[in-house]
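Below is how a single chain appears once it has passed through the pipeline. First comes the sequence as given, then the structure the pipeline wrote out for it. We keep one example in the README because the format questions we get most often are answered faster by looking than by reading.
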Amino acid sequence: MTLFERTVCSYVDRNVHPYFSRAEIRRVGSATCQYKPKIIMESSYPLLTAEHVRLRCLEPEDLELLYTIENDPQLWDIGMSRRPYSRFALRQYIAQQPHDIYQGNELRLVIEERATAKGIGLIDLTNFSPTDQLAEIGIAILAEKRGYGYGQQAIGALERYSCQVFHIRQLYAHVLSRYNPAAHRLFQEAGFQPVAELPAWHLYRGKYEAVTVYVKNIEKNAR
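Resulting structure:
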């Protein structure tokens, strides 16, 4: 059994959501684990599940979701990416997602609506520091799915997962100070505290704007 196969079985045995896609688990699961692939795919991973949403890794069928979010000009203004992506490039990106947060210091998960089993957004951990036990959090939800509380539920699930699996003690986020009021409300309602303002930090529509830093200690809350 390869290291990859042993890792898949280990994650399934612990009932913790793996970094691996359904396709990868389907390929390995039936041959190497005591569980059938269907059971693996339908397992409820409690750390990554909330009332109305669950978090999971990117799948090939998430191409259109990724294409819509990455090519939304409104998100370019408030994010780091400012260029369109082709479906070909995004298809390769999905296929090449790292299996280990310790490799690239980041993790991207799909926010899936439980009622429809469809992806409605993305949530990221970036700039992960295992030494300092910190990570930056980012989130994007399709416009038609905003306002239903899905963002807070997704953040709560990621907090539990980050704390219990990666032993992260603090999450932080950067939000444009004078713009993006929805993000300010989201992080404040999720228990994040504004701790600093970085002046002239982010280029927004031709002008450098201040950014508010939100921080949350999740050690006690993510249980």
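Strands lie at 53-56, 107-113, 118-129, 134-141, 170-176, 193-204, 207-217.

See the next section for the split statistics.
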